[in-house]
Amino acid sequence: MKSMIVAGVVAFGVLAAGPALASDKLWKDGGCLKCHDMDKKKKGESVKTLGAKFKGKDLDKLAADLKAEKDDHPKPKMSDADLKAALTWMVAQ
Ligand code: HEC
Questions:
Q1: What is the pLDDT of residues 71-92, one digit of tens each?
Q2: Atom 8 of ligand 1, nearest CA residue
Q3: Which fold has domain 2-91?
């Protein structure tokens, strides 16, 4: 059941973002991994911790907060579609 939900979320993310890559490539290329590690806390929380925290949450709002540099978070260096794909991938981890 859980894997079906995850698969659904991933499929939705892929559909919503078009052919954009739903993978850690966005996090790597966007410089996110400078401060976020896959499973260890670095400057920011790990991708897995953030994924668990934001699973089921409003990712559009999260993307908007990141773009607005809320809490001094650096502005994501990627398109809106890529950011959405990166966050969708994050909650699937
Ligand atoms: C210069 C370091 C740095 C970079 C680069 C960075 N982050 Fe962060 N990020 C942080 C820190 C520190 C926090 C925790 C403090 C906070 O909430 O802003 C954080 C928090 C977050 C959160 C949780 C926000 C919340 O409201 O709790 C998300 C999601 C996130 N980062 C995603 C990204 C993505 C996606 C990228 C790449 C586009 C990225 N970060 C690049 C340092 C960074």
A1: 999 999 999 999 999 999 999 9
A2: 44
A3: Cytochrome Bc1 Complex; Chain D, domain 2 (1.10.760)
